[in-house]
Amino acid sequence: MTGVGVSPGTGQGPAFIVTVSVPEPPEGATYQGEADQEKQRATDALQQVAGVLELRGDRVGGQAREILRAQAMMAEDPGLAVAVRGFIDEGIAAPRAVYQAFARFRETLAGAGGYLGERAADLDDVRDRVIGELTGHPMPGIPSEPAPPDEAGGAPRPYVLVAHDLAPSDTALLTKDLVAAFVTERGGPTSHTAILARAMGVPAVVGCRGATSIRPGVHVRVDGTSGQVRVEPPGSDAGRANGSDLGQSSGGTWAGQVAARDAGGPGRTSDGHAVPLLANVGGQSDLDAAVAHGAEGIGLYRTEFLFLGRNEAPSADEQQQVYRAALAAFPGRTVVVRALDAGADKPLSFLPPSDGEPNPALGERGLRLLRRFPDVLDTQLEALAAAADGSSAHLMIMAPMVATAEEASWFAGVCHVRGLASAGAMIEIPAAALRAESLVTVVDFVSIGTNDLAQYTFAADRQLGTLGTLQDPWQPALLDLVHRTATAASDNGKPCGVCGEAAADPLLACVLVGLGATSLSMSPGALPAVRVVLAGQTLGQCQLAAQAARGMETPAHARAAARSELPELARLGL
Predict the structure, then answer these.
(1) For residue 292, what are the contacts with CB-CB under 8 A and spacing of at least 6?
(2) Strands 519-522 and 4-7
(3) Is residue 155 pLDDT above 70, yes or no?
(4) Among the options 192, 219, 293, 483, which is catalytic?
(5) Chain CA centroid to CA 113, Å
């Protein structure tokens, strides 16, 4: 089977299939007694679920804490509570009222696509938990201990967890000791299954059709880089191998095995070519993980998480405190902050919606929105300037969704007036890459966002698993755009980083360096493996691998061609 690889590495083990779900409450269900009592019952269930999600988030910490807090906010949403009470006033029983209220919200999210489209699955999880609380129906079971030894004996092995979709409230409690890999039929590269899998360092494949038809207990191999899922026949030698031939033991995944060889230190090739390895960060928990995994700085600070889900914009003082914490975590190092990337699939409730956007992905987003509401950008830049005052960190600020050199020049000018010396542009739109020669002359640096650049280059929604091949960062056309941008930056003496999750693939990281990327930024958990793999290649080998990949016609052939130029990777199990 093939899906979309969203967390690199290879994992294997017996399949654990999650199939239990909370049934839909019957349509037309009514209640006995007073409406106020039924409303209170619904309110109590919503509050109970919110409390459990908050508690789980506090228990596990890290990225999972932020995700579960966001889910708890869904359960506590005042508009949702009003909708539930309204249905109860119509005589509808609390479980059905909750179902219908969530259905209304889900339709809105799913229609938005992109980031909010992925959050629709999270909303379903909250809905099911509230309904389960009201009806007493059990929630899906997730393994609480490793799989027992097979006939050959040996230590207990982690499972390969297979599901139609996975809720963050469950996956947040899992560990590498329990799970060797994730496989889901739904989801995309930015789904919470993908985010949490990368944070755990566990291979994951999403958008894998038919995965839940796998028979429980059979041996499954999952390649979280290529997206391939292989089911072994029962009793085969491979099924009894306990993972040793793929670099996985009972104690961890391929990524963990490679990371165990990490000696730390700065990112560089074997012949000494420096490639700073930076972290993608969305909050304090990510900062802690970045420091723990040896990040040399921050390559992408996603500031939108400060703004989403609020009725008013965060003040300059509030923003300043958050930015100061990021700068303090990396004294003397680079901290790249992305200006607010909102709009389209990440609407802000405190700004009036754009009218007539039939396709939000092509609407007012990122820099376009900031130019429409300059006060929002002014406050953010004011906070960044204040946070940088007295800090030894090297603050760099980049604009999202830049399409033209004129837009890039406008943003750089606004930053420079504020005393912010390093202003850059994200390359996420093909037009910016195609005209990189002129764009790089008006900014201080560029950073390539491979996720959106792939989406717009191939007209393929990055959330849609069925278009996984077109979203594959190994697409030669995408590599051409990366090379074109990096070459233009180099010719003008400007840095060109890559901050899309493509950099988290160790093999592709080498190719990106060969294409001319001067730094790589990724989820913190991916840093050790990338550092080890990159240290085993010369710059010349990386360049040959990049050239070979660009000469191919398909992503699979591009990957194979690159691997053939990097023989050291075979020793590492890649």
Answers:
(1) 524
(2) unpaired
(3) no
(4) 192
(5) 15
Q: Is 288 helix (H, G, I), strand (E, B) or coil?
A: helix
Residue 243 phi, psi dihedral angles, 5° rounding: 85, 0
Give the other-Cβ count within 10 Å of 374's Cβ: 10
End-to-end CA distance of the chain: 20
Q: To the nearest whole number, what is the mean pLDDT of the chain? A: 85
CB-CB contact of 267 with 530 (8 Å): yes
Q: Which one of 208, 415, 496, 499 is the catalytic residue?
A: 499
Q: Which residue has better confidence, 183 or 74?
A: 183
Is 19 buried (19+), middle (13-18) or exposed (0-12) by CB count in 10 A? exposed
Distance, in Å, from the CA atom of 376 to the CA atom of 429, rounded to the nearest integer, reads 23
- Asked if residue 239 has pLDDT above 50, the reply is no
Give me 389's structure tokens: 């005052």
More confident residue, 289 or 427: 427
Maximum pairwise Cα distance, the chain = 77
Residue 60: per-residue pLDDT: 65
Alpha carbons within 13 angstroms on the beta-carbon side of residue 533 total 34
Task: Locate all alpha helices (DSSP H) within 278-340, ordered by sequence.
Answer: 284-292, 316-329
pTM: 0.71
pLDDT, tens digit, for every residue of 9-46? 788 899 998 866 788 999 989 998 899 999 999 999 99
Helices then strands, counting H and E runs in the chain, come out as 23, 15
Task: List Cβ neighbours of 135 (8 Å cut-off, separation of 6 or more).
Answer: 22, 25, 95
Q: Are 331 and 394 in contact (CB under 8 A)?
A: no
- The model's confidence at residue 344, banded by pLDDT at 50, 70 and 90, is low
192 is catalytic: yes
pLDDT in tens, 316-336: 999 999 999 999 999 999 999
Question: Hunting for tokens 């290529």 — which residue is that?
Answer: 226
Q: How many residues does the chain have?
A: 574
Q: Is the pLDDT of residue 448 over 90?
A: yes
d(CA 77, CA 194): 25
Task: Count CB-CB contacts under 10 A for residue 551.
Answer: 12
Q: Output phi, psi for 189, to 5 deg.
A: -60, -25
Q: What is the b/e burial string over 384-411, where b = at least 16 CB atoms within 10 angstroms of the residue's CB? A: bbbbbeebebbbbbbbbbbbbbebbbbb
Give the dihedral of Cα atoms 552, 187, 68, 217; nearest 10 deg.
-100
Is the distance from CB of 80 to CB of 122 less than 8 angstroms?
no
